[in-house]
Amino acid sequence: MTVEEIDDVRSDPIARKYLRPFPGARELLHNLDRWCLWLADAPPEDVLNSPILRERVRNVREFRSRSTAASTREAANTPTLFRQIAQPSTRFLCIPQHVSERRSYFPVLSYEPEVVASNANFIADDPDGVAFAYLSSAMFIAWFRLVGGRIKSDLRFNKLLVYNTFPAPTTTSDVRERIINAAGEVLAARSVFPDSSLATLYDPDAMPPAIARAHKRLDAAVDKAFAPRRREAFGSVVARQEFLFARYLAMTKGMDMSLFDEDS
Questions:
Q1: What is the 8-class DSSP label of residue 39?
Q2: Domain residues for 97?
Q3: At a CB cut-off of 8 Å and minimum separation 6, what does 162 contact?
Q4: Is residue 192 part of a domain?
Q5: Counting Cβ atoms within 10 Å, is residue 231 exposed (0-12), middle (13-18) or buried (19+)?
Q6: Pair (42, 114) in one structural domain
Q7: pLDDT in the model for residue 152
Q8: How many domains does the chain divide into?
Q9: What angle do CA 99, 119, 60 make, to 5 degrees?
Q10: 240, 137: one domain
Q11: SS3 for 172-206, per residue?
Q12: Is residue 81, in this structure, part of any structural domain at all?
């Protein structure tokens, strides 16, 4: 809904119960407000007794009924619902479809299930934060840069080509906890700048040193999970990409993954 409509919705004691944040990629990255009415669990009495909800639902039904697409006309029978619903029931990771290629790390954000992410983002269930940890690492953006798509020069995320193919390690509970704790330090460093957007915090010319240091500690934990006995640090993006592609090839061929614990 538009910014102009928000005050009217908030003044309606029924409609305001169903107001939910609705971030797209732009809102996620630039800390902007966007809202929707989420009526998935609304009883019919609420829809009928709220002038705002009743008008909105009627307009949705009429709009869909006039569509040339049969599937949209069918959706006119459920005008209180979004046409596609993939809303998680737990804390989830919100992943923008595209970001600037200048980023040293992929800026992602976790939300509680009360937030409804738009289709400008991908989402992944992440109740304990381990997905946030991996996607916030140097390992992941190195992978993303090579296998992801592009819009002009910007990086374009795709869950099938980037997320599902990322050759993440199998870890013990202790290693997993260390990774999650390291990611928590990144979140703590971010929290010092509550008024700054992710786009600003992850601009390479403006990233606060505390956030950069927290990411380095996260990188160390993630790298250790990938190669527990490796002695040589990954000195470049290319070194990470070579390691990840060799690992991916080994995983798809069913090879012994312990080979990747060593420098060789």
A1: -
A2: 92-261
A3: 143, 144, 147, 148
A4: yes
A5: exposed
A6: no
A7: 87
A8: 2
A9: 145
A10: yes
A11: CHHHHHHHHHHHHHHHHHHHCCCCCCHHHHCCCCC
A12: no
Same domain as 71, residue 133: no
220 and 168 within one domain: yes
CB 28 within 8 A of CB 121: yes
- Which amino acid, 140? F
- Hey, what are 32's tokens? 């902007």
pLDDT in tens, 93-142: 999 999 999 999 999 999 999 999 999 999 999 999 999 999 999 999 99
Report residue 258's pLDDT band, with 50, 70 and 90 as the boundaries: low
* Segment 202-229, tens digit of pLDDT: 999 999 999 999 999 999 999 999 998 8
Predicted confidence (pLDDT) per residue in 166-186, tens digit: 999 989 999 999 999 999 999
Residue 154 sits in the same domain as residue 180: yes
The pair of structure tokens assigned to 130 is 């381990």
Q: Do 118 and 25 fall within a single domain?
A: no
Please, what is the average pLDDT of the chain? 93
